[in-house]
Write a structure and sequence with these properties.
heterodimer, A: mainly beta, six-stranded mixed β-sheet, five-stranded antiparallel β-sheet, 11 strands, B: seven-stranded mixed β-sheet, four-stranded antiparallel β-sheet
Amino acid sequence: QQQVKQSPQSLIVQKGGISIINCAYENTAFDYFPWYQQFPGKGPALLIAIRPDVSEKKEGRFTISFNKSAKQFSLHIMDSQPGDSATYFCAASIGQAGTALIFGKGTTLSVSS
Amino acid sequence: GAVVSQHPSRVICKSGTSVKIECRSLDFQATTMFWYRQFPKKSLMLMATSNEGSKATYEQGVEKDKFLINHASLTLSTLTVTSAHPEDSSFYICSARVGSMGAQYFGPGTRLLVL
């Protein structure tokens, strides 16, 4: 049973456009939702994270939108650049219990110039 | 952000030998570290959770006698792949958590190729 479902699997966006990646979770005990960016041959890098007490968090061009009732959260990349081309993973964990992150399957983003 | 290092970055070994991978938190103490395995174009698969000073907790299907994990200090965890075989070839990534509810930071990964 996949606890974190991520879509789309791949995404092509024009330079300057908005990239949107969605994730849905099943376990209502999850209370920590990070997004990671991974380039080929490298480890994932933490981009931005949110906890369920807020509905949106913005850091630079990256925004997380969180909908607790729908059990969904999404990553928006504004003004997408070719350098943003990478694989993005959403994840979730039960922070209070110190559990490991459960990852989505990833989205490969290509930003065309 | 917090920095996690891994060594070596790449290793090639012969079938039947053992390989040790080190994971270090460079600028913070990590009571909990995690080991993941990643296949090409796939997501990260959690192998085990490592707590400093105690035995690692392995995920279902992960052989604890094959993948030995030691977390001897608050800044170092090691993964030893014993009697490696070609099917163990993969990208191994560690991560360390800041505090009990804090963010999780990943190392750069180790590419293992078993011939």
